[in-house]
Amino acid sequence: MASHDPYVLPANLPAPEDDGAADHLVGLELPDLTLASSQREVNVRDFAVIYVYPRSGKPGVPLLPGWDETPGARGCTPQSCAFRDLYPDLGVPVAGLSAQPLEDQLEFAERNRMPFPVIADPERRLGAELGLPTFEIAGLTLYKRITLVSEDARIVKVFYPVFPPNENAGDVVRWLRSR
Q1: Where are the beta strands (DSSP E) in the chain?
Q2: What angle do CA 137, 134, 3 make, to 5 degrees?
């Protein structure tokens, strides 16, 4: 299998469609849930923006079979790097979260110099509490890409579906500034 560059989005990626799986989220309270992250254990209630993504890639490591053909799967690294680059502009506590194990999150955060926590949720505990959308691929159950914005731990804005992923951070900054 050919290697890929996780920092580059290929042309003609299929766009995810809004399947209604996030319609129930606005108004919900974030659970009192502590999870391991690249920086320490963190409580999801402590973040105003949590962007949830399927899984980050590593340079030279093959993609899962069918990854680029699965709407919304590709683009976790460009999305995370955009949040990293716009982090000073966001002005609120931010975290990334995926179902990947802590060792993957630690490697990713170090390689990409993430200034905020990258949360490991391999048991998909946040998803179970909130009913976050998931998809199946290569025997794995992964989160669909979604960004939650909260005030006082209550979800006030949901970005779903997120496409293209590398523009999500800018969309969040614009939304925050418009309030």
Answers
A1: 34-35, 42-43, 49-52, 94-98, 118-120, 134-137, 140-143, 146-151, 154-159
A2: 35
3-state secondary structure of 82: helix
Count the Cβ atoms, other than its own, within 10 Å of residue 92.
14
| DSSP code for 73 | T
Residues 114-135, mean pLDDT to the nearest whole number: 98
- The residue ranges of every structural domain in the chain are 34-177
- Compute the distance between CA of residue 146 and CA of residue 161 in angstroms, rounded to an integer: 6
Alpha helices in the chain (DSSP H): 76-90, 102-111, 125-130, 168-177
Count of C-beta atoms within a 10 Å radius of residue 16: 19
The amino acid at residue 177 is: R
Are 107 and 55 contacting, i.e. CB atoms less than 8 angstroms apart? no
Helices and strands, number each (H, E), in the chain: 4, 9
Q: Mind listing the pLDDT tens digit for each residue in 20-64?
A: 999 999 999 999 999 999 999 999 999 999 999 999 988 888 999
Give the CATH class of 34-177.
alpha beta
